[in-house]
Amino acid sequence: MNQALKRRRRGFCRRGFFVAWFFLASFIFPIFLYSQETLLKVDAAVIPKILSRGESGQVVLRLTVPEGVLVLAEPEFVIEFKNLPPIAFPKNFFTATDLELETFEANGQECLKLDKVINIPFSVAIDAPARTYILEGKVKYVLRSLKQGWCLKTASKFYCSFSTRATIMKKKLSGPPAEAPTEKRANPTHNQPTNQPTYQPTYLP
């Protein structure tokens, strides 16, 4: 009997441990994931909001991090977009060098300046259907906290919408260059003394 009671007690203890661990993990794990997603905030927009077929636009990104957190230039900083057939980017992904982001040094490490917006150009296909699109992208980065002493490599997704018209963007025709106006040359004989004799009028009495 005593051994049976001991086994039951051990079973209840194990079950209680796993239940407690499950509830604890269900609270801590989402908070940990949420903290990773919100460490770097990405505000995204497309300019202009409505484009014609064949027109070019820009994706404008603003990246912000909490005070005391830095974005390292190395080993990885990449902005990439999910394939969306009606639009085309110059590249499949963009690095900090491609975007010409400014850097500064902190504690012997090269970090990115995020005080300016990031502009990434794209073009709309000539046969793009007229409707609303949702563009999805991702920023891969490495964060560093000098005060707390941690380093984190993660990614943040972003979304932005835009619409296309049924009209086609016409390219402006470039005509011949305009000629510069030429100054009129003065007549070399104008206001110049001549060798012709001069006649004075005479009056008859």
Task: Please give a structural write-up.
The protein is of the alpha+beta class. Strands 2, 4, 5, 7, 11 and 12 form a 6-stranded mixed sheet that branches. The protein has a 4-stranded antiparallel sheet with strand order 1-3-10-6. It is built from 1 helix and 12 strands, in the order H-E-E-E-E-E-E-E-E-E-E-E-E.
Instruction: Give the helix level as a range of percent.
Output: 10-25%
Q: Structural class of the helices, strands and pairings?
A: alpha+beta
Instruction: Give the CA-CA distance, first to last residue.
Output: 171 Å
Proportion of β residues? Answer: 35-45%
Poorly predicted runs are 17-37, 201-205
- Give the integer mean of the pLDDT values: 78
N-to-C series of helices and strands: HEEEEEEEEEEEE
How would you describe this structure in keywords?
single chain, elongated, 205 residues
Task: Describe the protein's topology.
Blueprint: H1 2-39, E1 41-47, E2 50-53, E3 56-64, E4 69-71, E5 78-81, E6 87-88, E7 93-95, E8 103-106, E9 109-112, E10 118-124, E11 132-145, E12 150-168
Parallel strand pairs: 2-12
Antiparallel strand pairs: 1-3, 3-10, 4-11, 5-7, 5-11, 6-10, 8-9, 11-12
